[in-house]
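Appendix B, Record 12. Input sequence as logged:
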Amino acid sequence: MKTILFHPERDADAIPQAAAILRRGGLLGIPTETVYGLGADALNETAVRHIFEAKGRPQDNPLIIHVPDAAWLERYCREVPETAYRLAERFWPGPLTMILPRRENVPLQTTGGLETVGVRCPDHPVTRAIIEAAGVPVAAPSGNTSGRPSPTTAGHMAEDMDGKIDGIVDGGPCAVGVESTIIDLTVTPPRLLRPGGLPLEALEEVLGTVAVDKAVTGLLKDGEKPRAPGMKYRHYAPKAPVTAVTGDPAHSALVIRGLLREKAGVICFDEFAGYFEGHIVHRLGPFTDKLAQAQRVFDALRTFDGTDVTEIFAQCPDDEGLGLAVGNRLKKAAGFHLIDGDAPVVIGITGGTGSGKTSALQALEALGGTVLDCDAVYHQALREDETLRRRIRDAFGEVFRGTELDRQKLGSLVFSDPQALERLNGIIFDYLPGVLRRRMEGRVLVGLDAINLIESGLGELCCRTVAVLAPGEQRVQRIMQRDHIPEEYARLRIQAQKPDSYYREHCTDVLENQEETPEAFRAKAEIFFRDLLRQLHHITEGGHEQ
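Logged structural output:
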C-alpha cells in the first residue's frame, strides 16, 4: 500500500481527499493538538478492525471517537449528563475525552466490547474539517505501533505506519504532546482514567471531587478489562528498557548518575544535563516547564531507538498540572519500574585499618554520595551537645575541660575496665543513630563510615553493609607509610582488630582490596558500588526486573 502524505496548508484538495479515505473505510493519520492519531470511520467495523491490525493493538483496548463539536454527542451517546455539556463548553475543542454510555450505532469493535464510549473534540482545525467533510465520527488511537512512543509529528507517524495506511495529514508538530485526559462520567464521583493534556486541577474546578483510577499509578492485572485506552498494557516504550526516577529533581539526577553504565541513555530536565557527560541525553525542558516536558517526552523516548543505548533512565516531574500526564507516560514506558529519588540509600562501610576504606568512600562520593564519619560525628557532638556530655559525666565523673573531652582521663577509666568500656559504648551507640538519621535527611546516597558498624547496631540503618578487606601484609605496609610508624607497632594495631572472618560473617557484602595504588582501588570500588546500587534498585544486565 502506498501511503499518501497530505499538506493542507498548500493543497486545497487535501481535506476532501482525506475525508474520502475515511468514507470508503480507509485508514488516515490525522493531526491533533495532543498526538497524531490513526483514524478510521468509527461506525465501520471493518475499518476499525484495520486500525487494530495496523497498530498491532489488543482487541480489548477501546478506541476514542473524535467529533467536530458537542452537538454530535447525542448521536453516539445515551444519557448524556449535564456535566458533559459543561465540560465541553469549558474545554472543547481540547485535550479532554469523556466516557459516556454508547448508542447501538457505535460498534462494540470500536469500544473494545464495552457499553461505554470515549468521545472528544480535537483542537486542530484541519482534523475537525476532515471529520465534518467525512460526516462520520473518527475512531483514532495514537498513530504508533502498539506499545511504542506516540507520534507528535507526521514524520514520527510515517516511521511506524508508512505503507500500512492510506494517508497521513501533515498538520505540523503537536502543540500539547501527550494524549487527551480521559474522565469517566458514568460513575460518581467522576473518575480520571488517564491523565493527559488537560490537568486534573482544571477538571476539579468544574466537577469538584474527581477520583483517580488505580491504572494511573500502576498496571492493571491480567483479566482486568480496561475502560479507556492506555490503561492496561505497557505503553510508550522504546526498545531499550526504561527506569523512571521520581522525587526532587536534584535528588533524581544524583540517583541516575550513580546508576549509569557506559551505554545508558538519559532523559532529564535541562538543569541537570551536565551531570551525564559521555552519555546520550535528551532534555525534557526546565523542570518547572510542564508544557515543554509534555511536548518533548514522546520525541525523547522515540529518538533513542536510533541509537545503541542499552537502557534509559528518566527524571519524572511531580504530579502538579501536566506533570501528572508526563510522569504517567514515563512510568508506563518503564512498565512502572520506579525508583524513589527521595528515599536515601545508606551503605555502611567498615573494615580494619589499612584496608582502604578511605578510597572506597571516595568512590562512593564520586557517585554522588555523602560520607558520614561516625567517629567525627561523635566528637563533634561531644563539643556541641550538652545532653551527651551530661550522660558521660553521670557515668564517669568530670572528664571534660569546658566543652572539650579529656580523652586521656576518660581513656584511663575505660580501657582498663571492660565493664566501663561497655558502658561508654552503650552511651555512644544509643546516641549516634538519632544524630545520623537527622544528617541523612535530604541525602540521596549516604556512606556510613564506622569501624564498629556491626557492634554498634548502626548497620541496622543501612541498606547494605560492606566490609573493605585487604591482605594483612599490604595493610601493614600501608599503615607504616600512612602513619609513619614502625612495622612492629603496625602489626600490633592489626592484631588488636577483628579478623576478616568476623566481617565476612556479619556484613552483607565484601569489597576486596588487593590493588597496588589507591587510584586503582577507587576505580574498582566505583564499579562495585555502581553494581550494588543497581542491585538495590533491581536493575539487571538486560534492563530491570519486573
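The longest strand covers residues 96-101.
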